[in-house]
TrEMBL record:
Protein name per its UniProtKB record: Uncharacterized protein
Record field: transmembrane: 389-408
Alphabetic keyword roster: Membrane, Transmembrane, Transmembrane helix
Length: 416
């Protein structure tokens, strides 16, 4: 038996956010790994508006952290990672994957900063004998920061993009997204989506844009290229389920699309998996990369997608770039529970993308099985009058139900 109660930060161990606090400063103050701190809070906070990325939301007052009791309990039972081969292959086992995630994208271009959030459902559909899995991706909600002024083109693009969801992607046994499976189904949705768009927009420009969109929709390669460069798909299905060898560290070259204009930027990445689950019972994988892209600074400044500038002086100019990613995987499926990925290229106008993806849990659900989360308050807060009133009402309703049941039983007995 289960029932819902109102969410309250009183049900968790919390840290009260002070003026001037940042995720980095709080992690250092509490001696907690920054990425694990962010992941744990995002898993249990009340709503997507309370989730944290590189910064704290302005309205957020409390940060949810793991209790010492919970840490010690998990620490005592930390298990080694279960590899599937002698070469330390991390198996990809998505058959129980059916989860909603919050993806946050913090985009910087010089002094211009924008933030986008979206809720995304990820659901396993099937796996064939060769280890290729079919996984459904469905975007449920999209939020753009208040500072961003949407143009008509942005609004139109957002409405037409609904035709793609849900989209079925093919993921290989290494956990890498390699193709799309439901092109025909996407095209079949177009007429309905187009009708909805035309209810809100009209004019020759709109008609022209819709015709251009239809032409692209007929081309599988255009759809495929667009989605295989999607930030969520590239970050979430990043080929983590590979052979790590005995050292548990491998090196490989990967590309990540920082922006549409400069496209995929190549990095040589050192990828390491920890031998045991962490204090949150999650598999930890880190990726740290250095730039190995053949394009010069001038190539990037001119938004070229391939190396063009042949001047030796420009090629020798040092170009700084950063790639770091921190992954936390479910130890039963080796699929993402949460991640933080940061990619930056320091041009004259620096460009940066920071991605935070967190699995969303049902909050405030009380299961009557003796496994209730204990409240260990770090910050003492006054009890909520609303909460006390709520439980009084629940008690009264329960008592009335029992009395009515007794009354009906007595009536039945008297009748007999």
């Amino acid at each position: 038996m289960s029932y819902m109660k109102p969410f309250s930060y009183d049900d968790f161990l919390t840290y009260k956010i002070q003026e001037g606090d940042t995720p980095e400063s709080v992690a250092e103050k509490l001696d907690i790994d920054l990425y694990a701190l962010r992941s744990y809070h995002n898993r249990y906070c009340e709503s997507v508006e309370d989730c944290i990325g590189p910064t704290f939301p302005r309205h957020l007052k409390f940060l949810i952290i793991q209790s010492q009791e919970e840490k010690e309990k998990i620490e005592a039972h930390r298990e080694p990672i279960h590899f599937s081969t002698q070469n330390f292959k991390l198996p990809f086992l998505p058959s129980h994957l059916n989860k909603r995630y919050l993806a946050m994208y913090d985009i910087e271009k010089g002094s211009e900063k924008n933030s986008i959030k979206e809720e995304i459902d990820v659901k396993w559909l099937a796996t064939d004998k060769n280890g290729y899995s079919l996984i459904e991706i469905d975007r449920k909600a999209l939020f753009v920061n208040e500072n961003y002024e949407k143009s008509m083109a942005d609004e139109l693009a957002e409405k037409t993009a609904k035709v793609f969801y849900p989209i079925d992607v093919i993921v290989d046994s290494n956990g890498k997204c390699i193709d799309i499976n439901n092109f025909d189904e996407i095209r079949e949705r177009w007429n309905d989506v187009k009708k909805e768009v035309l209810k809100e927009f009209e004019g020759e420009i709109v008609e022209e844009r819709l015709k251009a969109f239809e032409l692209k929709l007929d081309d599988n390669d255009i759809i495929r290229e667009s989605f295989l460069n999607d930030w969520f798909l590239r970050a979430f299905f990043n080929g983590l389920n590979v052979e790590y060898k005995e050292s548990l560290t491998i090196k490989n070259v990967i590309g990540f699309p920082i922006s549409k204009k400069i496209g995929e930027v190549k990095f040589e990445v050192e990828q390491t998996i920890m031998p045991k689950v962490d204090q949150y019972n999650l598999v930890n994988i880190t990726q740290k990369g250095v730039l190995v892209d053949e394009r010069s600074k001038n190539d990037f400044e001119n938004n070229l997608l391939f190396p063009y500038d042949s001047l030796e002086e420009n090629k020798s100019e040092q170009l700084e770039a950063i790639y770091e990613a921190y992954y936390f995987l479910n130890p039963n499926t080796n699929t993402v529970e949460s991640l933080f990925l940061e990619c930056e290229i320091k041009l004259d106008i620096p460009q940066k993308i920071a991605i935070t993806i967190s699995g969303l849990e049902e909050t405030g659900k009380l299961i009557l099985d003796g496994k209730i989360k204990l409240h260990v308050p770090m910050q003492k807060k006054e009890p909520s009058l609303f909460r006390e009133f709520f439980w009084i009402i629940v008690l009264i309703v329960t008592l009335l139900s029992v009395l009515i049941w007794i009354f009906l039983k007595l009536q039945k007995h008297n009748y007999e």
